[in-house]
Protein backbone atom coordinates (compact mmCIF):
# COMPACT_ATOMS: atom_id res chain seq x y z
CA UNK A 1 0.00 0.00 0.00
CA UNK A 2 2.79 2.40 0.96
CA UNK A 3 4.69 1.46 -2.22
CA UNK A 4 1.61 2.12 -4.35
CA UNK A 5 1.03 5.52 -2.72
CA UNK A 6 4.69 6.47 -3.16
CA UNK A 7 4.60 5.48 -6.83
CA UNK A 8 1.48 7.56 -7.39
CA UNK A 9 3.09 10.60 -5.76
CA UNK A 10 6.19 10.19 -7.92
CA UNK A 11 4.11 9.94 -11.11
CA UNK A 12 1.80 12.88 -10.29
CA UNK A 13 4.10 15.70 -11.58
CA UNK A 14 4.65 13.85 -14.83
CA UNK A 15 0.92 13.33 -15.24
CA UNK A 16 0.25 17.03 -14.59
CA UNK A 17 2.84 18.16 -17.11
CA UNK A 18 1.58 15.65 -19.63
CA UNK A 19 -1.96 17.12 -19.67
CA UNK A 20 -2.71 18.56 -23.13
CA UNK A 21 -3.33 22.27 -23.52
CA UNK A 22 -7.06 22.38 -24.25
CA UNK A 23 -7.11 26.14 -25.01
CA UNK A 24 -7.48 26.25 -28.82
CA UNK A 25 -5.54 28.88 -30.71
CA UNK A 26 -7.58 31.04 -33.14
CA UNK A 27 -7.38 29.75 -36.70
CA UNK A 28 -5.96 32.24 -39.18
CA UNK A 29 -8.28 33.00 -42.11
CA UNK A 30 -6.45 33.29 -45.42
CA UNK A 31 -8.30 35.82 -47.58
CA UNK A 32 -7.77 36.57 -51.25
CA UNK A 33 -8.86 40.00 -52.54
CA UNK A 34 -9.29 40.53 -56.27
CA UNK A 35 -9.77 44.17 -57.33
CA UNK A 36 -10.88 45.33 -60.77
CA UNK A 37 -8.45 48.24 -61.09
CA UNK A 38 -6.63 50.69 -58.87
CA UNK A 39 -8.54 53.94 -58.53
CA UNK A 40 -9.60 55.94 -55.45
CA UNK A 41 -13.02 54.29 -54.96
CA UNK A 42 -11.86 50.67 -55.22
CA UNK A 43 -8.69 51.40 -53.24
CA UNK A 44 -10.88 52.91 -50.51
CA UNK A 45 -13.04 49.76 -50.43
CA UNK A 46 -9.97 47.56 -50.07
CA UNK A 47 -8.62 49.74 -47.25
CA UNK A 48 -11.99 49.88 -45.48
CA UNK A 49 -12.22 46.08 -45.46
CA UNK A 50 -8.79 45.70 -43.89
CA UNK A 51 -9.22 48.55 -41.40
CA UNK A 52 -12.52 47.19 -40.13
CA UNK A 53 -11.29 43.61 -39.81
CA UNK A 54 -8.21 44.88 -37.94
CA UNK A 55 -10.58 46.09 -35.19
CA UNK A 56 -12.12 42.63 -34.72
CA UNK A 57 -8.98 40.90 -33.42
CA UNK A 58 -9.49 38.05 -35.88
CA UNK A 59 -6.22 36.56 -37.21
CA UNK A 60 -6.29 37.18 -40.97
CA UNK A 61 -3.77 37.16 -43.80
CA UNK A 62 -4.39 38.88 -47.15
CA UNK A 63 -3.36 38.16 -50.71
CA UNK A 64 -4.28 41.34 -52.63
CA UNK A 65 -4.41 41.18 -56.42
CA UNK A 66 -5.27 43.75 -59.11
CA UNK A 67 -6.92 42.66 -62.39
CA UNK A 68 -5.95 45.92 -64.13
CA UNK A 69 -9.37 45.87 -65.84
CA UNK A 70 -8.57 42.62 -67.66
CA UNK A 71 -11.20 39.89 -67.41
CA UNK A 72 -8.68 37.18 -68.32
CA UNK A 73 -6.51 38.38 -65.43
CA UNK A 74 -9.52 38.22 -63.09
CA UNK A 75 -10.00 34.55 -64.06
CA UNK A 76 -6.29 33.81 -63.56
CA UNK A 77 -6.38 35.42 -60.11
CA UNK A 78 -9.42 33.34 -59.14
CA UNK A 79 -7.64 30.16 -60.22
CA UNK A 80 -4.52 31.20 -58.28
CA UNK A 81 -6.61 31.70 -55.13
CA UNK A 82 -8.12 28.24 -55.60
CA UNK A 83 -4.73 26.58 -55.96
CA UNK A 84 -3.57 28.51 -52.86
CA UNK A 85 -6.50 27.06 -50.86
CA UNK A 86 -7.89 30.41 -49.69
CA UNK A 87 -10.46 30.22 -46.92
CA UNK A 88 -12.51 33.16 -48.22
CA UNK A 89 -12.27 35.39 -51.29
CA UNK A 90 -13.45 38.94 -51.96
CA UNK A 91 -14.23 40.44 -55.37
CA UNK A 92 -14.16 44.24 -55.55
CA UNK A 93 -16.27 45.23 -58.59
CA UNK A 94 -18.19 42.98 -60.97
CA UNK A 95 -15.71 41.07 -63.21
CA UNK A 96 -13.47 39.94 -60.31
CA UNK A 97 -16.52 38.88 -58.28
CA UNK A 98 -17.96 37.00 -61.27
CA UNK A 99 -14.65 35.19 -61.85
CA UNK A 100 -14.43 34.18 -58.19
CA UNK A 101 -18.05 32.95 -58.16
CA UNK A 102 -17.36 30.84 -61.23
CA UNK A 103 -14.25 29.20 -59.75
CA UNK A 104 -15.34 28.78 -56.13
CA UNK A 105 -18.42 26.73 -55.28
CA UNK A 106 -17.61 25.68 -51.72
CA UNK A 107 -15.80 28.48 -49.90
CA UNK A 108 -17.41 31.90 -49.29
CA UNK A 109 -17.24 34.53 -52.02
CA UNK A 110 -17.92 38.09 -50.81
CA UNK A 111 -18.54 40.88 -53.30
CA UNK A 112 -18.00 44.58 -52.70
CA UNK A 113 -19.54 47.43 -54.74
CA UNK A 114 -21.73 45.49 -57.17
CA UNK A 115 -24.49 47.76 -58.48
CA UNK A 116 -26.85 44.98 -59.60
CA UNK A 117 -25.82 41.58 -58.17
CA UNK A 118 -28.84 39.94 -59.84
CA UNK A 119 -28.00 41.20 -63.34
CA UNK A 120 -24.35 40.27 -62.73
CA UNK A 121 -25.40 36.67 -62.03
CA UNK A 122 -23.96 36.69 -58.53
CA UNK A 123 -27.28 35.98 -56.84
CA UNK A 124 -30.36 34.18 -58.20
CA UNK A 125 -32.79 36.31 -56.21
CA UNK A 126 -32.94 38.82 -53.36
CA UNK A 127 -35.14 36.79 -51.00
CA UNK A 128 -32.33 34.55 -49.67
CA UNK A 129 -34.02 31.32 -50.80
CA UNK A 130 -31.10 29.97 -52.83
CA UNK A 131 -28.37 27.80 -51.34
CA UNK A 132 -25.31 29.86 -52.26
CA UNK A 133 -21.77 30.59 -51.17
CA UNK A 134 -21.93 34.18 -52.54
CA UNK A 135 -23.01 37.35 -50.71
CA UNK A 136 -21.93 40.95 -50.27
CA UNK A 137 -22.57 44.68 -50.63
CA UNK A 138 -24.31 46.53 -53.46
CA UNK A 139 -23.44 50.14 -54.31
CA UNK A 140 -26.71 50.88 -56.09
CA UNK A 141 -27.30 54.62 -56.04
CA UNK A 142 -30.68 56.47 -56.00
CA UNK A 143 -30.16 57.20 -59.70
CA UNK A 144 -33.55 58.81 -60.47
CA UNK A 145 -33.23 61.25 -57.58
CA UNK A 146 -29.62 62.00 -58.51
CA UNK A 147 -30.29 62.65 -62.18
CA UNK A 148 -33.43 64.69 -61.64
CA UNK A 149 -31.56 66.85 -59.12
CA UNK A 150 -28.82 67.32 -61.72
CA UNK A 151 -31.42 68.18 -64.37
CA UNK A 152 -32.92 70.82 -62.07
CA UNK A 153 -29.52 72.54 -61.90
CA UNK A 154 -28.23 72.33 -65.48
CA UNK A 155 -31.56 71.96 -67.38
CA UNK A 156 -30.03 69.92 -70.23
CA UNK A 157 -31.67 69.02 -73.52
CA UNK A 158 -29.11 66.30 -74.18
CA UNK A 159 -27.25 64.20 -71.56
CA UNK A 160 -24.03 62.41 -72.39
CA UNK A 161 -22.82 59.22 -70.72
CA UNK A 162 -19.78 56.97 -71.18
CA UNK A 163 -20.13 53.35 -70.10
CA UNK A 164 -18.25 50.05 -70.34
CA UNK A 165 -20.09 47.68 -72.66
CA UNK A 166 -18.39 44.58 -71.19
CA UNK A 167 -19.17 45.39 -67.55
CA UNK A 168 -22.60 44.42 -66.18
CA UNK A 169 -22.65 47.39 -63.82
CA UNK A 170 -21.90 49.82 -66.62
CA UNK A 171 -24.62 48.44 -68.90
CA UNK A 172 -27.19 48.35 -66.09
CA UNK A 173 -26.50 51.98 -65.18
CA UNK A 174 -26.63 53.06 -68.83
CA UNK A 175 -30.04 51.41 -69.33
CA UNK A 176 -31.38 52.99 -66.15
CA UNK A 177 -30.09 56.47 -67.07
CA UNK A 178 -31.55 56.13 -70.57
CA UNK A 179 -34.97 55.26 -69.13
CA UNK A 180 -34.90 58.22 -66.72
CA UNK A 181 -33.94 60.59 -69.55
CA UNK A 182 -36.86 59.32 -71.67
CA UNK A 183 -39.24 59.90 -68.75
CA UNK A 184 -37.92 63.44 -68.25
CA UNK A 185 -37.82 64.46 -71.91
CA UNK A 186 -34.01 64.61 -72.11
CA UNK A 187 -32.22 63.18 -75.16
CA UNK A 188 -29.73 60.50 -74.16
CA UNK A 189 -26.36 60.27 -75.93
CA UNK A 190 -24.19 57.30 -74.94
CA UNK A 191 -20.67 56.24 -75.85
CA UNK A 192 -19.51 52.68 -75.16
CA UNK A 193 -15.92 51.77 -74.33
CA UNK A 194 -14.14 48.49 -73.63
CA UNK A 195 -11.11 49.72 -71.69
CA UNK A 196 -9.85 52.85 -69.92
CA UNK A 197 -7.62 53.94 -72.82
CA UNK A 198 -10.78 54.62 -74.85
CA UNK A 199 -12.44 56.91 -72.30
CA UNK A 200 -10.99 60.23 -73.51
CA UNK A 201 -11.83 59.49 -77.16
CA UNK A 202 -15.36 58.55 -76.13
CA UNK A 203 -15.74 61.84 -74.27
CA UNK A 204 -14.44 63.77 -77.28
CA UNK A 205 -16.85 61.91 -79.58
CA UNK A 206 -19.98 63.13 -77.78
CA UNK A 207 -19.05 66.32 -75.88
CA UNK A 208 -20.09 68.65 -78.73
CA UNK A 209 -23.50 66.92 -78.92
CA UNK A 210 -24.52 67.23 -75.26
CA UNK A 211 -25.38 69.92 -72.71
CA UNK A 212 -24.24 67.91 -69.70
CA UNK A 213 -22.18 64.80 -68.91
CA UNK A 214 -23.02 62.02 -66.47
CA UNK A 215 -20.59 59.38 -65.19
CA UNK A 216 -22.17 56.54 -63.23
CA UNK A 217 -20.55 53.89 -61.06
CA UNK A 218 -18.49 52.27 -63.81
CA UNK A 219 -15.02 51.27 -62.67
CA UNK A 220 -13.32 51.37 -66.06
CA UNK A 221 -14.65 54.86 -66.83
CA UNK A 222 -14.03 56.19 -63.31
CA UNK A 223 -10.41 55.01 -63.50
CA UNK A 224 -9.99 57.59 -66.30
CA UNK A 225 -12.28 60.28 -64.88
CA UNK A 226 -9.56 62.93 -65.11
CA UNK A 227 -9.62 62.75 -68.92
CA UNK A 228 -13.43 63.18 -68.93
CA UNK A 229 -13.09 66.18 -66.66
CA UNK A 230 -10.49 67.77 -68.92
CA UNK A 231 -12.68 67.36 -72.01
CA UNK A 232 -15.78 68.74 -70.26
CA UNK A 233 -13.91 71.71 -68.80
CA UNK A 234 -12.43 72.66 -72.18
CA UNK A 235 -15.85 72.52 -73.87
CA UNK A 236 -17.77 74.18 -71.02
CA UNK A 237 -19.93 71.12 -70.32
CA UNK A 238 -20.96 70.45 -66.69
CA UNK A 239 -19.94 67.06 -65.27
CA UNK A 240 -21.81 64.93 -62.75
CA UNK A 241 -19.54 62.22 -61.36
CA UNK A 242 -21.29 59.82 -58.97
CA UNK A 243 -18.02 58.65 -57.44
CA UNK A 244 -17.20 61.23 -54.76
CA UNK A 245 -13.96 59.41 -53.91
CA UNK A 246 -12.45 60.38 -57.28
CA UNK A 247 -14.00 63.87 -57.49
CA UNK A 248 -11.73 65.87 -55.24
CA UNK A 249 -9.09 66.65 -57.89
CA UNK A 250 -11.27 67.05 -60.98
CA UNK A 251 -13.43 69.86 -62.37
CA UNK A 252 -16.88 68.40 -61.68
CA UNK A 253 -20.04 70.41 -61.05
CA UNK A 254 -21.90 67.87 -58.91
CA UNK A 255 -20.86 64.62 -57.29
CA UNK A 256 -23.28 62.46 -55.38
CA UNK A 257 -22.66 58.93 -54.22
CA UNK A 258 -21.08 56.72 -51.64
CA UNK A 259 -18.08 57.28 -49.50
CA UNK A 260 -16.44 54.09 -50.73
CA UNK A 261 -14.38 53.65 -47.61
CA UNK A 262 -17.74 53.09 -45.87
CA UNK A 263 -18.61 50.46 -48.50
CA UNK A 264 -15.34 48.74 -47.59
CA UNK A 265 -16.16 48.84 -43.88
CA UNK A 266 -19.58 47.29 -44.55
CA UNK A 267 -17.96 44.61 -46.73
CA UNK A 268 -15.57 43.89 -43.87
CA UNK A 269 -18.55 43.41 -41.56
CA UNK A 270 -19.92 40.76 -43.93
CA UNK A 271 -16.56 38.96 -43.86
CA UNK A 272 -16.57 39.05 -40.05
CA UNK A 273 -20.05 37.51 -39.93
CA UNK A 274 -18.91 34.64 -42.16
CA UNK A 275 -15.71 33.99 -40.19
CA UNK A 276 -17.82 33.83 -37.03
CA UNK A 277 -20.03 31.14 -38.55
CA UNK A 278 -22.85 32.83 -40.48
CA UNK A 279 -23.66 31.36 -43.90
CA UNK A 280 -23.53 33.49 -47.08
CA UNK A 281 -27.05 32.24 -47.91
CA UNK A 282 -28.39 33.96 -44.81
CA UNK A 283 -26.61 37.25 -45.60
CA UNK A 284 -27.42 37.67 -49.29
CA UNK A 285 -27.06 40.99 -51.12
CA UNK A 286 -27.06 44.04 -48.86
CA UNK A 287 -28.31 47.40 -50.15
CA UNK A 288 -27.87 50.82 -48.55
CA UNK A 289 -31.10 52.61 -47.66
CA UNK A 290 -29.78 55.27 -45.27
CA UNK A 291 -29.42 58.71 -46.95
CA UNK A 292 -26.58 59.56 -44.56
CA UNK A 293 -24.47 56.89 -46.29
CA UNK A 294 -24.45 59.04 -49.45
CA UNK A 295 -22.54 62.30 -49.91
CA UNK A 296 -23.56 65.27 -52.07
CA UNK A 297 -20.72 67.49 -53.34
CA UNK A 298 -20.78 70.73 -55.33
CA UNK A 299 -17.83 72.48 -56.96
CA UNK A 300 -18.68 76.18 -56.66
CA UNK A 301 -15.55 77.19 -58.57
CA UNK A 302 -16.69 75.19 -61.59
CA UNK A 303 -20.28 76.43 -61.20
CA UNK A 304 -18.97 79.99 -61.46
CA UNK A 305 -16.93 79.17 -64.59
CA UNK A 306 -20.02 77.62 -66.19
CA UNK A 307 -22.37 80.43 -65.11
CA UNK A 308 -24.56 77.97 -63.17
CA UNK A 309 -26.35 78.87 -59.95
CA UNK A 310 -27.01 76.20 -57.33
CA UNK A 311 -29.98 76.89 -55.06
CA UNK A 312 -29.52 77.49 -51.36
CA UNK A 313 -31.78 74.51 -50.64
CA UNK A 314 -29.40 72.15 -52.47
CA UNK A 315 -26.31 73.75 -50.97
CA UNK A 316 -27.81 73.16 -47.53
CA UNK A 317 -27.99 69.42 -48.32
CA UNK A 318 -24.35 69.20 -49.42
CA UNK A 319 -21.72 67.32 -47.45
CA UNK A 320 -18.78 68.91 -49.26
CA UNK A 321 -18.27 72.19 -51.13
CA UNK A 322 -15.25 73.00 -53.27
CA UNK A 323 -14.60 76.75 -53.21
CA UNK A 324 -11.47 78.78 -54.04
CA UNK A 325 -9.69 75.52 -54.72
CA UNK A 326 -10.32 74.22 -51.20
CA UNK A 327 -12.45 71.34 -49.97
CA UNK A 328 -14.87 72.34 -47.20
CA UNK A 329 -16.79 69.80 -45.12
CA UNK A 330 -20.25 71.17 -44.40
CA UNK A 331 -21.24 70.91 -40.75
CA UNK A 332 -24.63 69.29 -40.18
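^ C-alpha coordinates above, recovered residues below v
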Amino acid sequence: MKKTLLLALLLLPAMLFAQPNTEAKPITTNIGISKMVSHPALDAIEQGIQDYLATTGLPITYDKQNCNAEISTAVAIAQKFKSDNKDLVIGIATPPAQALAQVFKDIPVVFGAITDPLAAGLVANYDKTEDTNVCGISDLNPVKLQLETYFSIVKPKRLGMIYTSSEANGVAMMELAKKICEEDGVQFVAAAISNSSEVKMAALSIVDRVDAMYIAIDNTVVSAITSVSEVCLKEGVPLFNTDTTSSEKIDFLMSWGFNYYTVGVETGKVVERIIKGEKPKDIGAIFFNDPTQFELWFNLDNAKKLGITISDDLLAKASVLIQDGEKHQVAK
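The chain has 13 helices and 14 strands.
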